[in-house]
Amino acid sequence: MSALSACTPASSPKRIDLVLIGARGRVGSAFRARLAERSEILRAGLGIDLRLRAAYDRRGLAESEHGLDPIGVDALLAPRSAGDLDRLWARVGSAAHTVAVDCTASDEVAADYPALLGRGIAIAAANKHAGARPWAFYSTLQERARRTPWHYETTVGAAIPVLGPLRDLRLRGERVLGIRGLLSGSLSYLLSRLHEGAAFSEAVIEARDLGYTEPDPLEDLGGQDVARKLLILGREAGFPLEPKQIAVEPLTTASAIHGDALQKALRAEDAHWRERITAAKARGERLVVVARVGPAGGRVGVASLPLDDVLASARPRENVLEIRTDLQQQPPLTLRGPGAGAEVTAAGVFSDVLAAAQRLSL
Fold it and tell me: Domain Homoserine dehydrogenase catalytic: where (predicted)?
């Protein structure tokens, strides 16, 4: 018998209001579909009534005290107006149990986290920016998260449980010595396609169109997305690192361009990547974007690894993580699984929402 079927709520379901940020994005849309699918099951099985109190993005906002239909949100979003978010948060902040669900990659949204937690609004986020801001900001969030939930498991590894196991290691007394990993499912997919013979420019656009990269693929190619993940990992491992302590080797020289200009710039680098792939194959090796972090800092960059290396053997879109502790060095603790895609990420965010909801229901 499953945990849900075995659970018999002793009282009426506890209502949890959700405010979805990034409602029409790939992850936000996948989250809405999952919410529509799972709401009734959770209401009956866990006694948790998840209501979509509001949803918004840069262009529109919708809200209802009774709850929005997750599937029909697109048609309900009305044009934004000045000050609408301040008024929205003031209204929902008066409720006892509210979770902000951040499915964006917006630093502007992340900047509001301290204020949201200060209002007693819990946060479940796929947004990496909050956890990768300067240490003082991060410390403030962790302090406020002691009182109001802030869950961000999907910021590293999408739906793969990574941060939770890392915290558990430290709680039981293990000292983390260092972490090495393949932290970008999108770049894993990209380099796999290059080894299969695809041109660099074609593989990037393909990964973007499949939803594997950030909305702006330069976030992935510049290494900044992986750097944020690595910084979050390092901090969870107990290393009080600042963003500047993560060195990054970008995969492209292009920056701040879009559309046709981006494709043209990427095509100019096709020959360079073809040469690198050919050289790696000649050595019997494979190119991988390796991320490493330890007490002194971290680095993200392309490395040529032997084919029997666990990182070189990863499948397209797969994330692999090796955690070395004082008790687990040879072999290290290894975690792996799919690390890219809107559906996978939305599933992880949904788990974070449930974790926050259950804590709010206590």
Answer: 161-354
Domains of the chain: 14-158+343-360 (3.40.50.720), 170-339 (3.30.360.10)
Query: pTM of this prediction?
Result: 0.91
**Strand 333-338 vs strand 318-325: parallel, antiparallel, or unpaired?**
antiparallel
Cα 159 from Cα 76, distance rounded (Å): 29
CA–CA separation, 133 and 108 (whole Å): 12
Do you find a cis peptide bond into 331, omega within 30 degrees of 0? yes
Tokens of 67: 């709850």
pLDDT given for residue 11 in this prediction = 67
CB atoms within 10 A of CB 296: 9
Residue type at 219 in one-letter notation: E
The DSSP line for 155-193 is: GTTTTS--HHHHHHHHHTTPPEEEEEEE--HHHHHHHHH
Quote the CA–CA distance of 294 and 298 in Å, as a whole number.
Answer: 6
The answer to whether 226 touches 289, Cβ cutoff 8 Å, is yes
72 Cβ neighbours under 8 A, 6+ residues apart: none
Q: Comparing C-alpha atoms, which of 345, 314, 316, 321 is closest to residue 335? A: 321
Active-site positions? Answer: 229
> Mean pLDDT in each 10-residue stretch from start to end of the chain (362 residues)?
47 91 96 96 93 96 96 95 91 85 96 95 97 98 96 90 94 97 91 96 92 83 94 98 97 84 92 98 97 98 97 89 94 88 92 95 76
